[in-house]
Fold each of these.
Amino acid sequence: MKLFKRTNDIKEIINKFKRNNLSIGFIPTMGALHNGHLKLILECKKKCDVTVSSIFVNPTQFNDKNDFNKYPRTTEKDLEALLNTGCDILFLPSEKDIYPSENDKNYPLGALEQVFEGAFRPGHFQGVCQVVDRLFKNISPDEVFFGQKDYQQCMVINKLLKTDPSFEKINMNIVPTVRETDGLAMSSRNLRLSSEERKIAPVIYETLQKVKQNLKPGDLTNLTDEAKHRLAEAGLVPDYFSIAHAETLVQINNWNGKDPLVALVAAFLGKIRLIDNLTLTN
Ligand code: AMP
């Protein structure tokens, strides 16, 4: 695995690969890598000649400075994990390299950034677009790989790919959420749960599954109220537990039995905010 810290250096090697007609797959991450991230690397390796990953804890996507400061940084371990998984190139830029000047661009995300994560984390998706925009322009990937764990983020990236003509040829791959054996979605934030909290956390996935089992056409309010109640009883404080159209993320309170649905949840367990989701109609 080759490691690059500067944009100019990574651009140079990417150009060399392109001249040799090699396909480039890219997986952006914020590090503290777990098997969820590594699954994206493995999927990329199946499809592309060269697998490029990046680790950059992006300050502009954190609306809570404390969350940014406390975000786990485990670079040495990450390097080993990437090496063992067969990642070819790691980009480890500095903040100056990614943001050499003021970033004041506004990305037209419309309603997508006004709901769920967008509503509870103002500016989060603008920050995600800022960093992804810069990374994509440096790496010029053919294929990009994102986790379904961050369902709304996948939709935001799809929108970015559609609205910026320079990304026209990039193909998006959404990789299913990798879970612990007890169902908890793998997340770098799980590292910050106490052992008591860690025992409680699987209730999130259990609740999502229950909703899927009990889904029926008609009014969905009881179903989501019960889900919120179940989470609260276990000691979680939900920001939201909602059922939405799986393609538009418009909240659905009354289901016609046909629209594709996804259940989305964000909840605090102590000080740690966890998110998860489950598609309900496939
Ligand atoms: P992050 O480092 O949290 O920015 O995540 C980097 C990428 O890994 C994003 O595309 C995430 O959606 C994806 N990811 C994180 N956790 C998981 C998981 N449990 N399963 C699959 N993909 C994941």
Note: Residues 124-139 form the longest helix (16 residues).
Amino acid sequence: MTNYTKKELLDILKENSQNDWLFSHANKVRQENVGDEIHLRGLIEFSNICKNSCKYCGLRCANKNIERYRLSIEQITKDAQNAINLGYKTIVLQSGEDEAYTTKDICKIIENIKNFDVALTLSIGERSFQDYKEFKNAGADRYLIRIETTDENLYKKMHPYMSFENRLRCLKDLKKLGYEVGTGCLVGLPEQTFESLVNDILFFKDIDADMIGIGPFISHPQTPLANAKNGDFTLALKVMALTRLLLPDINIPATTAMETINPNGRIIALQSGANVIMPNVTTCQYQEKYEIYPNKSHSTSIEYTRQNIENIIKSIGRSISATKGFHNKKLN
Ligand code: 5AD
């Protein structure tokens, strides 16, 4: 593993002359450490109802212009079963922070899905230590909760009524409870600096993350950031590639946001350090309603989505993993 100083990371981020080297080096480090197999995580976006009001997110509760939905325990279980029948080895349950699901409800969903031979990831936001503990005891394996930005001032501006300290507390609790923990950041938020992006990358290393998801900020018309400019694809890719260099053996998804702002974004990301894709396996009629940002891809058939992704993976000489794709820690 390579060690970089803050100054070196900053220079690489600011300068574009080393980009080709960075992307091909990250690709090589990915290949040497996690191999050519790609892990597919079937994503179920089970509720777009959220009590928070993150400035950038289309699901913010202040947005009255979206049709809200909430899937039943039975429907979520069915969606998971369909995805598992197609070969998915991990199911990710994601939602807004929707308090209608009790701790018991979430545990029931986890138990239903863990009856099948799959790994289960939760991405349902900030909860208490006790809740995280109960989810873990019910069978949850992993948890995704992005720090979004480590710049505390920016964090405050972007997340009214939320606290950076509580976000950190969640990440630490999850680690303590033995989850595989995924976090990540947005690239290109208004007023975000190169320095803060470097701090984000160093933070990922500091907390010993198992997964890191990085995506460009995409401006949503029904948010206070409607007039802000989108994050830059190349800069987001650079943050992702540097994360691969600093954390060589972790799992890194080619995020949907990358694909949304660049038509080849997913393939480019897979060739610049990423080794995971998270295809949407939610009942198709709900997919377009989970509009965290505009033009997010949605499909008319989860079978078609799977086929399409298999073709893309084959076309770049890679293959789909038949395992659950846990983080295989190497001693560096
Ligand atoms: N652009 C890009 N990513 C977004 N997210 C939320 N809103 C946006 C947006 N407008 C990301 C956040 C969150 C993840 C589920 O989606 O980083 O953690």
Note: Residues 56-57, 146, 148, 186, 215, 217-218, 220, 257, 292-293 surround 5'-deoxyadenosine (CB under 6 Å).
